[in-house]
Backbone:
């Protein structure tokens, strides 16, 4: 189904469910991260891009004054949770389960900013694969914040919506994540990667057109589900904070590769490995941006490889399925590959010459079958537009 048909179908389904037309339909994309992992909450650099898979939401404010109608009704086209009802006046962090915590987290975060949200009906649809490390949750939050920003007349800028969804995710949902995913979703642009400085939210759009260099970017969804609300993500973040404290810097962003030798005398071995990943990863992002600009995507392969090795060996957030996907892709033609996203499962990316695409796909599928792993999903991505109103 194309975008127009899908948007129309969502609006029709909204009307069939809630008995009125929606006030509009908004969409926000998932993302892949080209490079720059676990650098965002260290005030460093990231280079993600928005993908074509998106969450779409149809919404209608039910009208009436806040006091009269504070009811929220939420339905998604996937899962089996059925209709979820909530009250705008009774939203509490940690209390909501399932997908509804993402839209309700946005409402709560709007309220925290002093923005009144009246009762509304919401229907959600998404083709961002869940738990695949492609930011399905941020896609929902970004679609909802874009819609409610417009419908309530809040007038928030993209940077403010990034802060707001970050607050929703950290304080309401309980996942201690950084600002990369929502920045890609809200600020992405077709044909470009989003080079984001997470210290001040400044963005430069960097052209990324793999096809012009005879390449495709493959996503290999390992089907190993992960969650950033689990302990692994939080413990890596804690190690980074400890490292910054011992090294007496505001954030690991302030440590240079040349400082690592001195740091090795100050940090325990595990903290040193965590710090080394972040510090070298920041340097790789800067190099990747320079290389993309001066020589194009065909020259960034070694940086993707080095990033994966650093996450596997120093940050220790890979898993056998991700390592196998990367190794099989690399040994059958990919010019660079790495896990993407928070780790412990999810997806890998493999930059692959067009002529080798089938061979790489076959090799990965074969390797997974031989290892007894669940069959992976493999597809290509190109940089797509950020969040927008569809109708
Ligand atoms: C998840 C988080 C991001 C970022 C990545 C790792 O996607 O949501 O903020 O920390 O992991 O780079």
Residues:
């Amino acid at each position: 189904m194309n975008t127009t048909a899908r948007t129309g179908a969502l609006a029709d389904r909204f009307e069939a469910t809630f008995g009125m037309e929606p006030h509009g339909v908004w969409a926000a994309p998932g993302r892949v991260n080209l490079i720059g992992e676990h650098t965002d909450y260290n005030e460093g650099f990231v280079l993600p891009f928005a993908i074509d898979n998106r969450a779409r939401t149809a919404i209608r404010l039910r009208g009436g004054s806040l006091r009269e109608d504070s009811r929220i009704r939420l339905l998604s086209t996937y899962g089996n949770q059925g209709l979820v009802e909530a009250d705008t006046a009774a939203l509490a962090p940690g209390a909501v389960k399932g997908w509804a915590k993402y839209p309700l987290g946005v409402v709560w975060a709007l309220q925290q900013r002093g923005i009144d949200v009246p009762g509304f009906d919401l229907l959600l649809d998404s083709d961002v694969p869940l738990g695949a490390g492609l930011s399905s949750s941020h896609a929902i939050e970004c679609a909802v914040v874009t819609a409610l920003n417009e419908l309530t007349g809040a007038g928030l800028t993209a940077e403010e919506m990034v802060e707001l969804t970050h607050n929703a995710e950290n304080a309401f949902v309980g996942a201690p994540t950084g600002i990369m995913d929502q920045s890609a979703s809200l600020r992405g642009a077709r044909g470009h990667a989003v080079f984001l400085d997470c210290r001040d939210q400044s963005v430069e759009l960097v052209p990324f057109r793999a096809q012009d260099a005879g390449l495709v970017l493959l996503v290999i969804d390992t089907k190993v589900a992960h969650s950033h609300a689990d302990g692994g993500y939080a413990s890596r973040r804690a190690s980074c904070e400890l490292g910054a404290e011992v090294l007496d810097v505001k954030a690991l962003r302030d440590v240079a590769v040349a400082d690592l030798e001195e740091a090795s005398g100050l940090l325990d071995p595990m903290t040193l490995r965590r710090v080394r990943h972040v510090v070298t990863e920041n340097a790789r992002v800067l190099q990747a941006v320079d290389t993309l600009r001066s020589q194009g995507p065909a020259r960034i392969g070694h940086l993707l490889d080095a990033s994966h090795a650093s996450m596997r060996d120093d940050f220790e957030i890979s898993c056998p399925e991700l390592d196998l996907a990367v190794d099989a892709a690399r040994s059958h033609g990919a010019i660079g590959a790495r896990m993407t996203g928070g780790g412990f499962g999810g997806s890998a990316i493999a930059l692959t010459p067009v002529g080798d695409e089938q061979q790489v796909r076959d090799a990965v599928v074969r390797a997974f079958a031989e290892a007894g792993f669940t069959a992976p999903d493999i597809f290509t991505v190109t940089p797509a537009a950020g969040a927008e109103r569809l109708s």
